[in-house]
Amino acid sequence: MADPVITSHHGIAPHAEAGATVEITIDGRAVTAGAGEFLIAAAERAGVYIPRFCYHPRMKPVGMCRMCLVEVSGPRGATLQPACYVAVADQMDVVTTSDKVKKAQDGVLEMLLVNHPLDCPVCDKGGECPLQDQVLAYGPGESRFLEEKRHWAKPTPISELVLLDRERCIQCGRCVRFANEIAGEAQIDFLGRGDAVEVNVFEGHAFSSYFSGNTVQICPVGALTATPYRFTARPWDLDQVESTCTLCAFGCRAAVQSSANRITRLLGMDSDPVNQSWLCDKGRFASEAPNAPDRLTEPLVRRGDALEPASWSEALAVVAERLGTVRAGAGPDAIGVLGGARLSNEDAYAWAKLAKGVIGTDSVDAQMGDGLPAEVIAALPRATIDEACSARCLVVLAGDLREELPVLFLRVRQAVVDGGVALVELVHQAGSLTPVATATLPYRPGEAAAVVRGLTGAGGAGRPASVGESAWASATEALGRAGADGDGVVVILGRPSLAEDGSLVVEAAAALAEAWPAARFLPALRRGNVMGAIDMGLAPGLLPGRVSLDDGRAWFAEWWGSVPAGRGRDAAAILGALAEGTMAALVLVGADPLSDFPDATVADAAVEKAGFVVAVDGFLSSSAARADVVLPAAIVHERSGTTTNIEGRVTRLGQKLVAPGQCWPDWMIASEIAALLGGDLGVENLADIWDEIERLAPSHAGITRAVLDAPSGRDGIVAPLASSPVTLRRRLSPEPFDPMATPGIESVEAQGAPPRSGGAEPSGGDSPAPAANGAAVAGGPSRPRVLAWPQAVETPSLPAPDSYSVRLVSPRRLYDKGVLLGAVASLSALVDEATLRAHPADLEKLGVGAGGAVRVKSGRGDLVVSAVADETLPRGVASIDFNLESDGVAVARTLIDSRQPLVDVRMETP
Q1: pLDDT at residue 597 greater than cutoff 90
Q2: What is the 3-state secondary structure (H, E, C) of 686-715?
Q3: What is the mean pLDDT of the chain?
Q4: 3-class state of residue 898 by DSSP
Q5: Which of 270, 497, 616, 785 has the fewest CB atoms in 10 Å of its CB?
Q6: Which residues contact 709 (CB under 8 A, 6 or more apart)?
């Protein structure tokens, strides 16, 4: 689809010719290496480990520490050269074990230890420290240094999450380079000169990066430590499983480590097609949520005005009796199910089967009114993350990726800065990618489709007034790199504002797809496993496998016994119907509409007027506290299964903890409710559920447990498979595991955690997988086809602008008032107060200065909030971040009216 981009990362020089090889000799042994490959990577691939400190395979080499010096023969004989900085050349002769090399290594290590404290017994890095390991393996064995070592005040908190011990720093520059090269936030750097040089933040500034935890992980000594982990455990006390982070929908692979049934930390694992070893701080540190003391541990049943403990049998009996009564009296359509994006795929499938196959309702939605229409997400021609990062032109029509999908932001930024990908962003206001974008096209709420039609020339449309001539010319030039049919264009599509109806974004996407039929889309939905929940049928009008209700009716009725008669309601319609009294019961599956749904008025009325509410959750959220029955469920790291990321990649979840008290996994809860309602989910464990998913869901045909568990499936399998039977190939040149790149993972695995696997083929003997589309079961209906683009979505008519009002934009923030974040003390302190951002001219008309207060009114609410001037916003637009509070009030949710496609607000002086 697009030309590959060669960067200087992962041991390959930027001038390398793809596929070419050279012959070199390492320690007398002939080795084949990739042309342009750095010597240190080629040696490791050949099984020769060259010690290093500054080198990291995901960052540009700098040759600073000199620990990797080796002898390289040349016209003037053998000379010492840094293996991390020298690219291989044909017939190169390399020696890594000579006396000269050994002497150089001794000298480097002796110099590093001159001022390094001998405090290993009390250092958090002790037991997993590359400096310890390499001094033992390559060091001189004793020190000649007798003088007093250098001392600094310690530890220095450089942020809420990171502590700095300057005495331990060996000045490898890894943290500095990560902050500058990868994160694009040069907030930590070398200060001072000579023997006074130190790594530190700038005076008066904190290390406020969303990615600060990565500097702790890649630090080869104990100079940077994480505040939540400091002094909590020793490496030999830890056990780990490999799993997937589900704090957002990007699906970062991680090592989850625990001690005494408590999560201690997450470490990013190098999954090349996904996170490439990086994690955001929310994903890394919010892993402590299962340790929270206020977890639900037993079922609760409302008696009078209070929720009181009950047995599982009593609580489930109440749920079944009340839901059965509603179904018999008002019909299955009177029951709504909200949530599921926090679940595994198997749990989501169980709830979908319960709702649509047993209860009979299609009013099911995993999105809380903050996503895009599910049928559109299921049908769009989807790109992978790698395809997006190697596109000829990347178009972003989504919220700020740094705030919503932080590691996707890192991947996209690297593709633009190092890979030369052209980036065109359509935004309400400047975001984190704006400094590196080829063109930034601002638009007012409701005008995205007009900007797209101007770009594509559809209907003779031209440049809208909101976009400057220079930006328009740059965008046109960037899009000119792609084919006329859009070949080489990837669109990252999300929900930029929760104050704007999602159908307006879909209208813009449809215009792009119509003009560029070869373009592909990468969804940028935020909720953890929302893609898996949609794939499993937790959306109105859909059945498992990205199949429409009508197309899959016969197939699933054959296997499930029945399916709903017609399309149900989405989240907004469910809550609206409950508020109006036309629905009677609500099942919340890890959902909290009182905190998450954009329209606080509707959510409050729905929960208040619902005849019966059951909440299945790990915490007593605002919504659960008002439910009639609360069922405690296992949460992240307490359950196994699979999850699906934004590109459709299915990966394994590893269970690390035993859920507290009487918590059950969701699939078991759904199965018991089904049995009490007279149905049968027909499953006894997770394996049964996945086998049924693979057998029935067209998008997952061929993705068997054997395929997922094979070494080739280590990074996950993208659904749907292109063809069946399944053919998986090993990587032609697997990158060796570098313990220096991710210190702390290998050392724990040595204590008995599952070993890393190579790139072997999946074992044979599996039966051929059924075809993804059209395969028939003998004597039964044919397997339905997955949804195809385009999908018709009704676009609402927009109200005319009011000259006395401004249009509201409500984007997401990484740190907000979510339930999981509130359970983690180290992160909840980072949540900002809500403010209103507006163009300076709009604030000047009110006579409001920077930091002044402004009264904001909409048809839903009236409140006072602090104002901030923002020149990147168009005139007549105000921005309030979603799910933040001011004086305890959720500002955006108070103002948003979910019944309207846009939200107009009036600003006044208080």
Answers
A1: yes
A2: HHHHHHHHHHHCHHHCCCCHHHHHCHHHCC
A3: 89
A4: coil
A5: 785
A6: 652
622 within 8 A of 594, measured Cβ to Cβ: yes
3-state secondary structure at position 290:
helix
What are the pLDDT digits (tens) for 621-638?
A: 999 999 999 999 999 999
Rounded to the nearest 10 degrees, the angle between the axes of helix 130-138 and helix 99-112 is 140
Q: In degrees rounded to 5, what are phi and psi of residue 40?
A: -65, -35
pLDDT digits (tens, 9 = 90+) for 375-393: 999 999 999 999 999 999 9
Residue 503 in contact with residue 795, Cβ under 8 Å? yes
Q: Which two tokens stand for residue 121?
A: 């017994």
Say what the pLDDT of residue 769 is: 42
> Which residues have a Cβ under 8 Å from the Cβ of 247 and sit 6 or more positions away?
280, 282, 283, 286, 528, 636, 820
Tokens describing residue 373: 């229409």
pTM: 0.92
Could you tell me if 693 and 353 are in contact, meaning their C-beta atoms sit under 8 angstroms apart?
Answer: no
Q: In 168-268, at which residue ranges do the beta strands (DSSP E only) sit?
A: 188-191, 198-201, 224-226, 239-244, 253-259, 262-268
CB 490 within 8 A of CB 520: yes
The predicted pLDDT at position 1 comes to 42
Residue 363 has pLDDT above 90, yes or no: yes
Two structure tokens written together for 828: 């909840």
Tokens (6 digits) for 524: 């940028």
d(CA 289, CA 811): 25
Whether 313 shows a pLDDT value over 90: the answer reads: yes
